[in-house]
Structure prediction request, 209 residues.
Amino acid sequence: MIGPLVVCGVLLEDDALPSLAKLKVRDSKVLTPRRRSQLAASVRKIAKKVEISSVAASDIDRLRRRGVSLNEIEIGQFVSVLKELQPRVAYLDAADVKADRFGDVIGERSRLLAKGCTIISEHKADSKYPIVSAASIIAKEERERVIAELHQVYGDFGSGYPNDPKSVRYVQNLVKRGARLPPIVRKSWESVKRILDEAESIQSRLDGD
Prediction:
């Protein structure tokens, strides 16, 4: 609900796969910040290339106002990353309820399918394939870096995820004070809309009284 959307791709040569296996990378969500930072540095050392693409909260809102779905926004980021990496085999953490459809769309728009690239698109791929785990670790590290910078400007709003009570309270307090939501808040997010709707409902009841 706060901060950018970050997508990362990691390109490895075949002979680097054993080195990746030795790192015992795991889904970034189950790692401590310290371990995640260590693994991110190790992955960068063995990767042929790392590509990161991000979308600021204000750009997400702008695109959503134009009718672009979050799914389409994510597809655009995946395509951008894959065009830069040009892999022979691509493992995708599907951001669509239909994983195969997601892979087909990405493959066509990136033109990788036409080049003979094999695309494996699955849900929860970051917990199944080390290469996707590696990408999720670096994506998480990049987002945490940006969030830390935003804390210096906007105060400590927590992680920015809607399941973080601190992030929810941050937005709630802004709304209660009647302050303008800063550009780092994803105003098109359902969790943020819910806070705004609740505040409007309370105000309406007060006006009615």
